[in-house]
C-alpha cells in the first residue's frame, strides 16, 4: 500500500481549498472578535444615570471590586472613623472652626451694650440713626448687605469642589472578590457611605452582576507599583504609576487616611515623582524634561514611600466574599 503524502487531502474529506493552519488562525480571530464585541456592547447607561462607577483594585492580598462616585463636598458626609482628633486632620480642622466660632461669639457678647435706662436707650438710638444717615448709600457705589447676600451664596456654591466617595463603612473600604458578591451586598440594604447619594436607590434596584465591568481607566494595579519602581526609571510604567497616584489620593481623601494624604501632598517627594511622570507621559520637549527629572529621583526612596502608602490602604480594606 502506497504511503499517503502528508500534504495530500484524504479522498473521504471534502475539499476546503484552505490550509489547516489558516483555518485554525481564522477561528482564533473570530473568537477574539467576539470577545471584543461583547466588551464593547456592555450597557453602561445605569452607571451614567447614577453617576457611580465600578472600580477594581489589585492589592498584594488580592483583587477586589468596589464602587466610587464624585459629588460636591456639600452633598457628601465623610465616612466615620474611630480616631483621635490629633490623628485625624479632618476632625482637628472641624474642632478649630468650632473654637474660632466660639471665640467670635464671646467677642460679640463682650462688646454688647446692656442699656437699663430707657432715656439713655433713646439717645443711643438717635446716635445710631445719625451715623447711618452719614453712611454712603447704594447710589454712591457702595452695595448694601442685601445685594451682597446672593453673591456670597453664589461664591459658596462655586467653592464646593467635587470629592471622591467609595463603597465604605466606618473608615473601611469594602472590596468584593466577585461581581456577584458586590451586587448581593448592594441589594442587602446594609449600611455604607454611598447610601446617602440621591441615585443610590436606582442603582440598588437595577444593578446586575453583568454590569460590574470597570473601564480600563478604573482598574488599578497597586500590587505592581513597588516592584515596578524598584526596577529604576528606565523601566517605570508611567500609566501604572500615574493611575496609582490618582486612586491613592482618592482613597486617602475618602477614607481620611492622613499618612497617605501627607505622603502625596504638594511638594512631597512622591508628588514630585507624580509630576515628573505626567510630564514624561505627555511626550515632546516636556516629556524629555520629565524623563530627565525621573532619572534624578531615587528608585529606592520612591518604592519605600509607595510601599508605606499601599500598606496604609491595605490596612483599611474590609474584604467581602
TrEMBL record:
Compositional bias per record (Acidic residues), positions renumbered to this chain: 12-35, 100-112, 133-160
Source organism, top-level taxon: Bacteria
Compositionally skewed regions (Basic and acidic residues) per UniProt: 116-132
Ranges where the record places region Disordered: 1-35, 61-160
Name of the featured protein: Uncharacterized protein
Native source organism of the sequence: Catenuloplanes atrovinosus
Amino acid at each position: 500500500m502506497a504511503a499517503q503524502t502528508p500534504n495530500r487531502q484524504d479522498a473521504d474529506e471534502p475539499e476546503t481549498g484552505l490550509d489547516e493552519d489558516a483555518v485554525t488562525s481564522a477561528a482564533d480571530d473570530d473568537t477574539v472578535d467576539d470577545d471584543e464585541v461583547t466588551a464593547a456592547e456592555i450597557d453602561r447607561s445605569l452607571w451614567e444615570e447614577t453617576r457611580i462607577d465600578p472600580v477594581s483594585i489589585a492589592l498584594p492580598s488580592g483583587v477586589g471590586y468596589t464602587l466610587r462616585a464624585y459629588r460636591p463636598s456639600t452633598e457628601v458626609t465623610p465616612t466615620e472613623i474611630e480616631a483621635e482628633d490629633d490623628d485625624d486632620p479632618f476632625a482637628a480642622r472641624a474642632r478649630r472652626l468650632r473654637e474660632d466660632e466660639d471665640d467670635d461669639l464671646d467677642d460679640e457678647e463682650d462688646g454688647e451694650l446692656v442699656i437699663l435706662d430707657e432715656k439713655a436707650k433713646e439717645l443711643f438710638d438717635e446716635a445710631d440713626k445719625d451715623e447711618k444717615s452719614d453712611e454712603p448709600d447704594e447710589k454712591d457705589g457702595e452695595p448694601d448687605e442685601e445685594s451682597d447676600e446672593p453673591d456670597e451664596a453664589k461664591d459658596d456654591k462655586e467653592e464646593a469642589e467635587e470629592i471622591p466617595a467609595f463603597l465604605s463603612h466606618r473608615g473601611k473600604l469594602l472590596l468584593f472578590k466577585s461581581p456577584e458578591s458586590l451586587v448581593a451586598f448592594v441589594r442587602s440594604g446594609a449600611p455604607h457611605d454611598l447610601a446617602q447619594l440621591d441615585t443610590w436607590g436606582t442603582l440598588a434596584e437595577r444593578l446586575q452582576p453583568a454590569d460590574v465591568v470597570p473601564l480600563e481607566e478604573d482598574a488599578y494595579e497597586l500590587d505592581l507599583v513597588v516592584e515596578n519602581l524598584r526596577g529604576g526609571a528606565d523601566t517605570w510604567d508611567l500609566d501604572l504609576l500615574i493611575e496609582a497616584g490618582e486612586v491613592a489620593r482618592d482613597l486617602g481623601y475618602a477614607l481620611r487616611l492622613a499618612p497617605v494624604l501627607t505622603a502625596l501632598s504638594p511638594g512631597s517627594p512622591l508628588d514630585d515623582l507624580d509630576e515628573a511622570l505626567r510630564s514624561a507621559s505627555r511626550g515632546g520637549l516636556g516629556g524629555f524634561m520629565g524623563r530627565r527629572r525621573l532619572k534624578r529621583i531615587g528608585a529606592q526612596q520612591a518604592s519605600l514611600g509607595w510601599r508605606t502608602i499601599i500598606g496604609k490602604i491595605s490596612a483599611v480594606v474590609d474584604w467581602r466574599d
